[in-house]
UniProtKB/TrEMBL annotation:
Gene3D superfamilies: 3.10.20.30, [2Fe-2S]-binding domain. Coiled coil: none annotated. Keywords: 2Fe-2S, Iron, Iron-sulfur, Metal-binding, Oxidoreductase. InterPro entries: 2Fe-2S-bd, 2Fe-2S-bd_dom_sf, 2Fe-2S_ferredoxin-like_sf, 2Fe-2S_ferredoxin-type, 2Fe2S_fd_BS, Beta-grasp_dom_sf, Diverse_Oxidoreductases. SUPFAM superfamilies: 2Fe-2S ferredoxin-like, CO dehydrogenase ISP C-domain like. This is (2Fe-2S)-binding protein. GO terms for molecular function: 2 iron, 2 sulfur cluster binding; metal ion binding; oxidoreductase activity. Residues 33-109 form the 2Fe-2S ferredoxin-type domain.
């Protein structure tokens, strides 16, 4: 019968000066770095750890709090922002990777010419918010959707906003709001 052998070798004991030399440094990996982000048309500076998300940087360092943390897994859409015009989940983007890109949050278009943006107004008109936690993400996604689909059908709205979830179930109001906003934007109001 053949067994698993043990060599019997034992690691030699370290002398105190050798043990001290083997102690790992206090900081493991890169530290915080200074970055500049273009948010709502303005350069904004922050100091972030390389693992920090865009959502954390927006909310905790730059006091831009429209995007909400809900799932923190890139599935609910409450943290939706526009990155180079495309809807993106801020909880899934590293802040350092967002450098050099155009970032638009709900704060960047919520008011236009002193009046609410057409999408914002349509959400109010149609009671398209309940607890309000998902609302900023839905408004951002709706604006981006209408930028690419200015004359949508109800089914297109339903499919186009499939990346955003509402725990309160106010989907009917959201969809009606997007259809109303499309009409308002066509008429030249707050496009």
């Amino acid at each position: 019968m053949q067994g698993i052998g043990v060599t019997g070798a034992v690691a030699p004991a370290l002398l105190p000066e050798q043990a001290q030399a083997q102690t790992p440094p206090g900081v493991m990996g890169p530290g915080a770095v200074a970055i500049t982000l273009n948010i709502n048309g303005k350069p904004m500076k922050a100091t972030v750890e390389p693992r920090e998300t865009l959502l954390d940087t927006l909310r905790n360092q730059l006091d831009i709090t429209g995007a909400k943390r809900v799932c923190d897994r890139g599935t609910c859409g409450a943290c939706s922002v526009l990155v180079n015009g495309k809807v993106s989940y801020a909880c899934s983007i590293l802040a350092i990777d967002a450098q050099g890109k155009q970032i638009t949050t709900i704060e960047g278009f919520a008011m236009s010419g002193g009046k609410p943006h057409a999408v914002v107004q349509a959400f109010v008109n149609n009671d398209a918010q309940q607890c309000g936690y998902c609302t900023p993400g839905f408004v951002v996604a709706s604006k981006a959707f209408l930028d690419h689909t200015p004359n949508p059908t109800y089914e297109q709205v339903k499919d186009g906003l499939g990346g955003n979830l509402c725990r309160c179930g106010t989907y009917v109001g959201v969809r009606k709001a997007v259809l109303e906003a499309a009409k308002m934007m066509k008429g030249g109001s707050n496009a």
